[in-house]
Design goal:
Blueprint: H1 8-16, H2 20-32, H3 37-56, H4 62-79, H5 85-89, E1 94-99, H6 107-118, E2 122-125, H7 132-142, E3 146-150, H8 158-169, E4 177-181, H9 187-193, E5 197-198, H10 202-212
Parallel strand pairs: 1-2, 1-3, 3-4, 4-5
Helix pairs in contact: 1-2, 1-3, 2-4, 3-4, 3-6, 6-10, 7-8
Length: 214
Amino acid sequence: MATIVPTPEDIRKCVLSGDVAGAKVQAQASLAAGLPLQEAFDPFVKAIREAGDLFEQGEFFLPQLLLAANAMQAALDVIFPETDQQSVRLSRGTVIAGTVHGDIHVIGKNLVCALLSANGFKVFDLGADVSCEKFVEAARQHKADFLVLSALLTTTMVQQKQMIETLKTAGLRSKVKVLVGGAPVTPGWAQEIGADGYAPDAPRAVDLALRLLV
């Protein structure tokens, strides 16, 4: 008996309601039906973006947004498991990603990490509220090609600049490309602080990383 492919609406309801168990089931069903990783992942991306839009519009509050993020993460763990050795073998490069010190937002960063993994990058996600020292330690340990720095608050953007200065002090700036993003971040800010690139969303972050590999 063929596995039934979950509908986008089924997935949307799971994510928006914060149904972690349901999101896992939908992700597992998508993979069991033989969908490519990207195709299985796309409906979850659309759902979490809708949750973000609802939050911005004042129709979702922070607890609802966090529940949606938890459901999204549960699906990501199924579709892109950390133990997926294929992505390591096919790695286009090594990425250290995290939300900068003082900032606990993770949704955008999680999307970027998932898409980078799906496109053949080996990704080490340090999570949120990551210090410059921890970024440097991970970059050195894993011989990173890229640092992906997310900042969702205007008050934490300065940490992206501080991170670049810390890389210089550590003697690593020439060895790693720095990509920045987040709601308040702009191309002008990226240029001002000496980052290698800026992307406004996860798909374009992947495009940017692929271009910088050349």
